[in-house]
Amino acid sequence: MEIKADAGDYVSIKLAKREVKGTILESYDKDIILVKLESGYNIGIPKENVFDVKVIRKYKGEKVKYDIPSGKGKPKIGLIVTGGTIASKLDARTGGVRALTDVEEFAKFYPKLFEKYDIKINSPFMELSENMNSSHWKTISKEVKKMLDDKQVRGIIITHGSDTLHYTSSILSFFLRGLNKPVALTFSQRSIDRGSSDAELNLECAAQFVLSNCAEVVIVGHATENDNYCYALRGTKVRKMHTSRRDTFKAINCKPIAKIGEKVEFLEEYNARKEGNEKLELDDKFSNKVALVKFYPGMDSGILNYYKNEGYKGLVLEMTGLGHVSSDWIGKIKACIKSGMFICASAQTINGSLNPKVYSTGREIEKSGVIYLKDMLSETAFVKLGWVLGHRNWNGKEKEKMLENFAGEFSEFLSE
Amino acid sequence: MEIKADAGDYVSIKLAKREVKGTILESYDKDIILVKLESGYNIGIPKENVFDVKVIRKYKGEKVKYDIPSGKGKPKIGLIVTGGTIASKLDARTGGVRALTDVEEFAKFYPKLFEKYDIKINSPFMELSENMNSSHWKTISKEVKKMLDDKQVRGIIITHGSDTLHYTSSILSFFLRGLNKPVALTFSQRSIDRGSSDAELNLECAAQFVLSNCAEVVIVGHATENDNYCYALRGTKVRKMHTSRRDTFKAINCKPIAKIGEKVEFLEEYNARKEGNEKLELDDKFSNKVALVKFYPGMDSGILNYYKNEGYKGLVLEMTGLGHVSSDWIGKIKACIKSGMFICASAQTINGSLNPKVYSTGREIEKSGVIYLKDMLSETAFVKLGWVLGHRNWNGKEKEKMLENFAGEFSEFLSE
Lengths: 416, 416
Description:
The structure is a homodimer. The first copy, chain A, is of the alpha/beta class.
């Protein structure tokens, strides 16, 4: 029979021996009706088994008006909404989540934030974080600069998908030179309309952080699986470490900058940047001709020719152990470097610092001109290389710049 | 002046105002003499500052004879030595480490092992682990099979460089079908002639493990930074997680199989394979036309053409979050799959399980035919894909085989 109901409609379906009620979901198989039951479970029903479908409630793309409360007398915070789960809600039509459609809808979902603070909100684009690239990073950094031109703004919160959030926090740490206000990126692993959503605590802690005087780019997120407190993690030393846990972001090769619960507690050993008289300068040059390449045993070094032929200017090789690739790569690495490519080494183990001097392979690779990036994360190394090679005026100084500690990307306390 | 001393010689060097004593190291700069002082520090002295050099003790490539004690009445263990730090020692000439030259020298370094057990030792090759590839993996597995043909042998210890040890433990878990004896791979992060060497405890714990009745391929290594106990970690669920720490190997998405201190304690929840009547069959097919590719934001999907043109049969894409790449990749992914390539998804976060159903990008990618490997590690996924695609007789069953739990590569208790 032909089914006269659409995704999102709440329906009653008559089968041979029983009737089921639920919401129709988008189905990828045209012969199956996919239904979300009241219990929350989804079932697939072959259309040939369906005797009748009655629409009980037609789906409406609901749009509720929300009046943003007055900010008078409240601390002023800039809020940049870029998409991701934190700006998404469950979609009745797919059973998955979809992006909120506008800034007002965002405000409606997080009323507490707008009641407590004077939120200056803008959304330059709405994008899932896996789709972001250097042009999005530039747009965000310009938006930060613009908002901070207003001296009343105490700091900036950026909401963003979690998948590539640590790439964005890293590149903003380099783009925003002379930063003198806090910038906190935050996210959620579960959308706000789920009971287990982590969005509200993350946002509230991000707000608290940007009212501090710590002029760093950080990621703020759940410190544990519970809803009790968050960490602020340095933008260049943080990585998404779990597909689904709410405390997915972890400080790597260092400690969190601060613990945020009732108040913001800075961890004593942390030498964080303070607000000062520096003037914020946007330095958002970026070369897209850089790549991050993970080495694995038996990997064919021919891949290096691909990057050379495609005109890549730099590579970060994610190496094994203290910084090794197989010996038969060394010749091709030398040839690439000779042809003008910059090749950097980062650690596949994630934790710890490289040291090319212990083993003969490392010594050979270092001799060939590879830049060993000590304990810098691979993801940070990739965006930093794009940033450094984006600067034509740094011609001849590329290695020096890669090894300069611009934004805490090296843990100075770690021995080499 | 011309210096008449060679690397490894213990010398006295006369400078303008003082004299220094130490061992000459190999120097990459012909104008600098590199000297290891008694204090352990290395210093570089410009040759032009040297007034005289006296050789106090000439370097000899020492070779000491060692008689392996009789194994009579002791438990019999197979030991396969493949190279790496555990089979290396400090090299006086470079200040780094170098491989032991023969099996006798290995026995001399680890006398306790040979006193306690009847060690049947063989070294099919001596290689640093970053240089290993599928042909080494095949050689090792053949050696295991050969040693286990001797029914007296209780289990096998394999010593191996730590850099790619988890790739080897994974592939052996697939190659050794119907395994009915314990196989423990072990390593060291510091060579045996350093005070802080982890080699001896790792070897002793590996020996204890292979005397158990657990017929699994495991990695045995330090559980903590102290020298008190080790873990046995399932070969397919383990990863090197630190460049230099001795407890570098960690169980991922599961717990260790056993704790090994005074005795071997199996963790109760673990459903480990027991010795039985199964017959060990070597199934060491492997296709080298597979690659592991880590995705990063802004990555050019043109790389997929490279792999297609080079005749690759399969790729593991290390995706972000729950299993995403940027939307503009989906078209090329579809084209690759249509041309017969197998594309699998693994998690860049390392921890957690993929779930393509939550977000639209994931649903689109899954629809394109990508095989989502749940909580399987990227490194395990790479070797398993090589193994599966090495089987011509599995034609048409590749996806089914990738999703079959052969060697605990999926944690069954994790929900999708």
